[in-house]
Design goal:
It contains ten helices and five strands. The chain is α+β, with helices and mostly antiparallel strands and 273 residues long. Helix 6 crosses helix 9. The longest helix has 28 residues. The chain is elongated. Bound molecules: FE2/S2 (inorganic) cluster (2 copies). One FE2/S2 (inorganic) cluster binds next to loops. This is Xanthine dehydrogenase YagT iron-sulfur-binding subunit.
Length: 273
Amino acid sequence: MNHEMDENAASGLTPDEEALLDQMPWLEEAGISRRAFVGHAIAGGLGLFATDLLEVEKAFASLAPSPGAVYAGQAMENIVRVLLNINGEAKPLEIDSRVVLLDALRERLQLTGTKKGCDQGQCGACTVIVDGKRVLSCLTLAASVEGKQIRTIEGLAEGDELHPMQAAFIKYDGFQCGYCTPGQICSAVALLDEARRGDVSHVTEDVSASTTRLSDDEIRERMSGNICRCGAYPKIVAAIQEVHSGRETQHTWAIVDETRLAMVRREIADETV
Ligand code: FES
Ligand code: FES
């Protein structure tokens, strides 16, 4: 062991702290010992931390609890109270003003149908409908949609009756892993309203029309912000096209139920007798 290491061990400082203090030759000139300086620095840091903590605690103590509010199990800063209207229900929340709608839905309200994919506006998995228009909930501050009508995948069905778009996705087998599906369906539902309003896209030919007829190209273009890693795109387009056009087509596949299975078993048994 060399002399320098002996000194470090004796001072109780780590090599990094020693290296840092080597950058401060003026300490010795000012007659301050290295150990005393480090001690004061740690005490100062803890003091600031404690002061900060006290301020947060004081902010919490000054808030009267809202009836029915959902609380997170961790300390928050920049607290705001919001009343969100989600799927027709008023949801009071006390949240950090920086919380995005996606996290408010999933983490605070347990509405986990809305999925987090990229969390940066690239994949569309988090799409919900706000005042009839699709938005990316990962890029939308929860506090900014107070007073608006928010619709998530959980709010599309009427009781036991699926929304026509949900039923069409099932009919056309428009999903595989299903992770992107809530965002795809919310996007598709709002897309039909866009077409009814005559909103144009990059591929719209007649931009003066008051409604837009959705060709497959229109659907592909308008759904291009919703990524499906399983590649269920053709079936998604078919499902949206059917709901948009109102022209029903036959199922192209069927789930094998117990009756059908029993028939097949009987046929096999007959053949092997
Ligand atoms: S999670 Fe919002 S766009 Fe990907
Ligand atoms: S169904 Fe799997 S990502 Fe779309």
